[in-house]
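Before going further, learn to read the protein records used in this course. A complete example follows; check for yourself that the lines match position by position.
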Amino acid sequence: MRCSNAVDCQRFLRGSLLVLLLQLVVACAQKPVGQLELMPPPDVYGDGLFNPLPKSNPFLDIPYDGILYATDRQPAGPDDEELFYRNERGQVLRVGYAEIQMGEGDLTWEQARQVSLLKARTAEFPVKIGKVTEWGIVGETIPYWVDAGLPEEAPLPPDAVDQFAQAINDQLANSDSKDIYLYTHGYLVTFVNPLLVSAELWHFLGYRGAFIAYAWPSTPHRLAYIKDSDTAVGYARNLRLLLEVLAEKTNAEEIHIIGYSNGTRLVVQALEQLALINQHRTEEEIQETLRIGNVILLGSDIDRAAFGNSLADGLLKVCRHLSVYVSAEDKALGISRFLTNKRRLGELWTGDGNEIHPQARQALENLRGQMSFINVTEAEGATDGNGHHYFRQSPWASSDILMTLYYGLEPEQRGLVRQTDLPVYTFPPDYISRLWGNIQRLNPDWAEGDQAPSE
């Protein structure tokens, strides 16, 4: 199309952008149903050499027979189309659990255990959400200020902090791992999505420790990006309060956080709040109190400069280690950059005006022991689709993430190598054999076979 004047050109550009947005900003989208096809198994579990799954059905021992959740969405009513919770902001943080099913109902646990680890499955293997039970609210999240646009709620349920913490402690008592894992999702999804993703991540962790799905009120509408971005930042207080509750009332040795896409804003903002609240304390005192271990940011849709401000406010004093996964082929973040005119944290530094600033390069070198940037561009399957779902699509990326959580391995210990041109780690062609060799060295008494390695 040839533009006749500047106004026509601007209209054409806006129209083209809208078409592009509708086509590509499906970064975190899932169909609003109560099931999800199980992600491919991480390659580290290939060939049956390492099977992390318990031989007996873990749901027989989980005290709440499902996955824990926390959400600040509005509860769904009988006339609502949404499942369990609406795609709207609520006024408080609610906690409970959801029953989950791995595979079809007629599968035995042993069959589900074996089939879920097959690299080439011949049949569908859905992860399903069944009954959802809300225990109550986190009382501290009752707001001081309520916007006029929010509906008046019915009388709030009771404070369920103690019940939630007790459920976690009961699960930790049953597990060899005493850690909590928390996943928070990106934009454009319904309440059930983070529960389903958390369920599959927990499955491939062998049901270690306790897992919490954090479902903030994103909106499954492609044009809700600005609204969801505001929510991710503005509702970080609720996540911060939950982390404080987990540190105060549970027996967890460490609390690990996995943030994805727009949800990484929520994570970074909550951690920055914790850093500012505790700025008078030493790093050792903060970490001893909060017990936040690995924080993993995936496809991070954060302004790089804003992230730098969070670092300056003491973000890294709050967690033991921060891992930031980046890609040169993440098309969803490319659109976010176009919309905001700012480079995103989850984008890899490249040429064409995207070179790393010398000050940023020096900061990454100085912070190597506390923060790692990991380039997934060369990881198997990481650029499929729009290149934004690599943590579920790439068997190498999922291996790296899960082994970070399983063993607490540092990048070199997982088989990653430093790039020569950037202070960033990348995946070498023999990544899986490197990772597997390191796992064997961690378990010298472990004989190969169908069992999980010893701790």
